[in-house]
Specification:
The chain is α+β, with helices and mostly antiparallel strands. It is about 20% helix and about 30% strand. It contains 12 helices and 27 strands. The strands form 5 sheets. Strands 1-2-3-6-5-4 form a 6-stranded antiparallel β-barrel.
């Protein structure tokens, strides 16, 4: 056979072999890089542990499975509130009312107008509790929950926590497990993990956007409308817009890892969510007690800078926070904490940043004991503390935390916990100093689980009058409560809420 005839065949076989080899190696490499289908995520944790998310042979996105699982749990929250009509025109309302028969407010009195807003939330449990942001429902006179199928249900506020911007509302409706969100572990997320935001941005119901976790542990954010005190935000570039507030941020498994809360109006693709682990603890407190109880230590922490480390002769990489000052007659002082101490551990957990430390302290229940490992004068020592109630301390009430559960104490009037008003409570609840100075009153610091005022009064409301009794301080409140206790008819409660005053009925 002519050898010249074999050369092209040989070359052709060699080319085919080479191409096949490279193709095979490409498949193996792509498999290792997870470029081939199907792509399989880890097993879904929750009510259906056998479920898995796939990209099928047609290239269907794994986010389809996330949407199908999560969107039925997401609700649209419609809020209505009565606000005073500001200002008077040249022709005051009374003239339009008297001369033209146009509805207005006679005698030039401020007119009430209805203000509508909306946000998002998700179904937290089968009993009808919905988790959302405090700023979505804080001033609501009427709340409507819209389910994924369009069903509208009236809702009432179970409890709010302005210090983390979380709230729980409830509808009189039960849900099956398929309509209840699965809660994930926000501590387990990593920068670069998938992040999927769901909600009702700009009134567009049942919207899903996709991005990644951009950062963890964001704090000291100046959020429009008032920043929460306890900040530990997860940052994401998944598109979040107005109306997304209160909706879930989920991972690729369809588990809630955060509650969408804020955006950076100066830049696109910068949104922030409250971690699910923090949110669940707050929600459980609100459901069980109607308020959040936090421990209070009584010291001022500051970041441990390189200059402070040098001055204290500490290693450059020594973690911890620096004790700048200690308040008298507080658990910190009684436990032996001193200015200049460096706290490295709290309840056997490492302390890294000031914000992290504040959250760790707040997690301790009033009356519970806590330990701190500190460095003082180059030596390590362990200090012990018994924390008091943060809310009571801020409200100006001193003394040890109750030694018995709240439910075993004498039931307060209308199931309300109230306190005197001082400069700190004015700032904490963003109250109108002018209105408080004019009317006096006591501030609502908590609503018990069985309070008939749930859904009508909120934490932070200032009670200025009950029925015909004016309330200027705690003595007036106690006197009115003793006179009205046992009354079975509806009671009119005059309150200051934010910068406006209103009257609401409470039915025992």
């Amino acid at each position: 056979m002519n050898k010249n005839l074999l050369q092209p065949l040989h070359n052709t076989n060699l080319k085919i072999f080479s191409a096949s080899l490279f193709f095979l190696l490409g498949i193996l490499y792509a498999s290792g890089r997870q470029w081939t289908t199907p792509i399989q995520a880890e097993e879904l944790a929750g009510p259906q542990p056998g479920n898995r998310f796939f990209v099928d042979n047609q290239g269907t996105s794994p986010f389809v499975e996330v949407a199908q699982r999560m969107l039925p749990t997401v609700v649209h929250i419609k809020v209505r509130e009565q606000a005073a009509q500001g200002g008077q025109s040249l022709f005051e309302d009374r003239y339009w009312h008297e001369f033209f028969g146009i509805p207005g407010t006679p005698n030039g009195q401020p007119q009430q107008r209805e203000v509508s807003s909306s946000g998002s939330g998700f179904i937290f449990d089968e009993q009808g509790h919905v988790l959302t942001n405090n700023h979505v429902v804080a001033d609501a006179d009427e709340i409507t929950i819209v389910l994924s199928d369009g069903t509208e249900l009236e809702a009432s506020v179970v409890g709010t926590d302005p210090e983390t911007d979380l709230a729980v509302v409830k509808v009189d409706h039960g849900f099956d497990r398929d309509h209840v969100a699965i809660i994930g572990d926000s501590d387990a997320i990593r920068v670069g993990d998938w992040a999927i935001a769901l909600g009702n941005p700009l009134g567009l119901d049942q919207t899903l956007t996709v991005g990644v976790i951009s950062a963890k542990g964001r704090a000291n954010l100046n959020i429009s409308g008032g920043a929460p005190i306890f900040q530990n935000f997860t940052q994401t570039d998944a598109a979040i817009n107005f109306g997304n507030s209160g909706g879930p941020l989920v991972n690729i498994r369809g588990e809630v890892i955060g509650i969408n809360t804020a955006i950076n109006a100066m830049g696109q693709g910068i949104g922030f969510a409250i971690p699910s682990n923090m949110a669940v603890q707050i929600a459980q407190d609100l459901i069980e007690r109607g308020q959040v109880t936090r421990g209070y230590l009584g010291m001022v922490p500051v970041e441990l800078t390189s200059e402070l480390r040098a001055g204290l002769e500490l290693d450059d990489n020594q973690p911890g926070i620096f004790v700048d000052s200690v308040e008298d007659d507080t658990p910190a002082a009684e436990g032996g904490l001193e200015p200049g101490d460096v706290i490295t551990k709290w309840n056997d957990e490492d302390v890294q940043k000031v914000n992290d430390f504040r959250i760790k302290v707040a997690r301790v229940r009033p009356g519970e004991k806590a330990t701190a490992e500190v460095i003082r004068g180059g030596k390590r020592r362990t200090l012990k503390f018994t924390l008091v109630d943060r809310a009571l301390h801020i409200a100006g009430i001193t003394g040890e935390a109750p030694s018995q559960p709240r439910e075993e104490l004498e039931a307060p009037y209308l199931g309300l916990d109230v306190a005197e008003i001082d400069a700190r409570t004015l700032a904490r609840y963003e109250l109108s100093e002018e209105l408080v100075r004019r009317h006096g009153g006591v501030v609502v610091t908590g609503l018990r689980r069985d309070s008939p005022a749930r859904g009508t009064l909120n934490v932070g409301d200032v009670i200025t009058k009950i029925d015909r009794y004016s309330i200027e301080d705690l003595d007036d409140y106690r006197d009115a409560a003793n006179r009205l206790r046992g009354l079975e008819r509806a009671t009119l409660v005059h309150i200051i809420r934010g910068s406006r005053s209103t009257i609401v009925p409470v039915v025992p």
